[in-house]
Amino acid sequence: MSLARLGFVPVLGLLPLLGFGCSDPAPPTPRGAFTLSFVGGGSTCNTTGHGANLGVVSQDRKDEVLADGDGAVVECDVSGSGSFSVSGRARDTANAEEIQVTIDGITPQASQAEPATGYISFSSARTGGEVFVSDPDDPCRFWFTPGSQQGVDAGKIWAVFECPRMLNEGYVCSIRGGVLAFDSCGI
Which of 27, 69, 84, 137 has the largest CB neighbor count within 10 A? Predict the structure, then answer.
């Protein structure tokens, strides 16, 4: 009888270890990058034109896309198939430059002639921390440069954009030459 009990001791001793292999792996850390020119049109914009960026991204290259926690706060979700919904936030913790993006529907075929529309909010030290939001009557435009590696798929987007009217308490500025990249989003 004591031999039968001894046969169960090694098996019972391994049971706690078997539970460690059954958990889901940690989700990937969201990553993001952006670059843009925040410009004004004379007396309607209360900030002088300036560039802002997080990481290093352009129409042609993604050289540095920062992970959440690596000098940046990055939150994003890119979901769908065929048409994708995008929400993202990227903040440079050292320079206080932040962009928030919402695109309700963008397809891989979005072009400059037929862009997707969406909304952006932007703030930086140069805006005095004031948040500028895109005009709901003249939203931002998002598209992919032909022949580039830009695109959208579940969990990721790399696109160019412009916002003709960025508003803050009567001031009107714009964003030109914008590029954004998010990946490892909501997967």
Answer: 84
19-44: average pLDDT: 80
Q: Indicate the pTM of the whole model.
A: 0.85
The Cα 15–Cα 44 span in angstroms is 69
Positive or negative, the CA dihedral 127, 165, 78, 33 is negative
Give residue 179's Cα distance to chain centre. Answer: 11
What does the H/E/C string look like for the chain?
A: CHHHHHHHHHHHHHHHHHHHHHCCCCCCCCEEEEEEEEEECHHHCCCCCEEEEECEECCCCEEECEECCCCEEEEEEEEEECEEEEEEEEEECCCCEEEEEEEEEECCCCCCCCCEEEEEEEECHHHCCCCEEECCCCCEEEECCCCCCCEEECCEEEEEEEEEEEEECCEEEEEEEEEEEEECCCC
Residue 96 clears pLDDT 90, i.e. is over it: no
Phi-psi region of 170 (alpha: psi -120 to 50; beta: other; left: phi over 0): left
pLDDT, averaged across the chain: 88
Would you place residue 22 in the very low, low, confident or very high pLDDT band (cuts 50, 70, 90)? Answer: low
Residue 132 has pLDDT above 70, yes or no: yes
> Whole-angstrom Cα distance, residue 143 to residue 159?
6
